[in-house]
From TrEMBL:
Full protein name: Diguanylate cyclase/phosphodiesterase
Organism: Ruminiclostridium papyrosolvens DSM 2782
Portion of the full-length sequence here: 581 to 856 of 856
EAL domain location: 24-276
Lineage: Bacteria, Bacillati, Bacillota, Clostridia, Eubacteriales
Length: 276
């Protein structure tokens, strides 16, 4: 036995591994029935114009309230949904919900509001992906320019040319593409050059560092300048403090999204916030 050999550290490590593994198994099992049980909901986090402080858009964020596990974070269940390809029907459901909600807001007079939906690599690589997206948006008679798809850099490591072709087609239809979590991964500047990106979302880790170190501040303001000179709209993610807001404003960041202004909210609360 490891413990008898005085290797307590390894025993603990094994237990943690075991726990993570069985938790994953449970999530996987429950995910399969979560949809039919109606356990998913979409919340929306408002994005604000940094100058006017008005809401310009909403990011759709999936929420899962499991009857057995309670609220499960997307950080935990999205990777499982991706591995099992459940993200394909789930992602389609999120897009439909987001379209229904933004349509309702447009009908109430908020014509310029956009909605952003996170899209996984698995979805993009699926055959017929672009047509499916176009058909969904069409079915609600929405202006494609009000829909933004958020992709991450990890998407791009695999199958760059395939992804590029599909994104170009969507962009050609007027749909906006946002590069999410910029700076978190490998951040190839080549992606900025080649992909049809309308919006650059600076990762929260850089926004955090605005409060803590000079290097973080320097990189953040140069990302803003770089993105803006490429004609992109810049959104700062995870803004929690006034000093971050002030810094971002000073260096011409376009929009902010973060707890300082609003957490992700259920649709009904978003409507209250927007007075509709
Ligand atoms: P993301 O797309 O980068 O979304 C932003 C995350 O940051 C959200 O976490 C949001 O609640 C959180 N956040 C926003 N402002 C603040 C802040 O000021 N402080 C802090 N601490 N956090 C903030 P959430 O909702 O837990 O989602 C986590 C990730 O899960 C998302 O990161 C996205 O990658 C993924 N995800 C969520 N919904 C979907 C979905 O429908 N489809 C796919 N494919 N992925 C999704
Ligand atoms: Mg996102
Ligand atoms: Mg992000
Ligand atoms: Mg993300």
């Amino acid at each position: 036995k490891a413990k008898e050999q005085g290797k307590n550290r390894y025993v603990l490590y094994d237990k943690d591994m075991d726990k993570a593994f069985s938790e994953r198994m449970i999530i996987e099992k429950l995910l399969h029935t979560a949809m039919e049980k109606g356990e998913f909901e979409v919340h929306y986090q408002p994005q604000f114009d940094i100058q006017t402080q008005k809401v310009t858009g909403l990011e759709a964020l999936l929420r899962w309230k499991s009857s057995e596990l309670g609220n499960v974070s997307p950080v935990k269940f999205i990777p499982v949904a991706e591995d099992t390809h459940l993200i394909i029907p789930l992602g389609e459901w999120v897009l439909n919900q987001a379209c229904i909600f933004i349509k309702e807001l447009h009908d109430k007079g908020l014509k310029d509001l956009t909605v952003s939906v996170n899209i996984s690599t698995i979805q993009i690589l699926q055959s017929g992906f672009t047509q499916k997206i176009i058909d969904i948006i069409d079915s609600y008679k929405l202006n494609p320019e009000c829909i933004e798809l958020e992709i991450t850099e990890t998407i791009l490591i695999e199958s760059f040319t395939t992804v590029l072709k599909k994104l170009n087609k969507l962009k050609g239809m007027g749909i906006r593409i946002a590069l999410d979590d910029f700076g978190k991964g490998y951040s190839s500047l080549n992606y900025l050059k080649q992909l049809p990106i309308s919006t650059l979302k600076i990762d929260k880790s850089f926004i955090d560092s605005v409060s803590t170190d000079e290097e973080g501040r320097t990189i953040t303001r140069h990302i803003i300048t770089l993105g803006r000179s490429l004609g992109m709209t810049i959104i700062a993610e995870g803004v929690e403090y006034t000093e971050q807001l002030e810094y971002l404003k000073k260096y011409n960041c376009d929009r902010i999204q973060g707890y300082l202004f609003s957490k992700p909210l259920p649709g009904e609360e978003v409507k209250k916030l927007l007075n509709v």
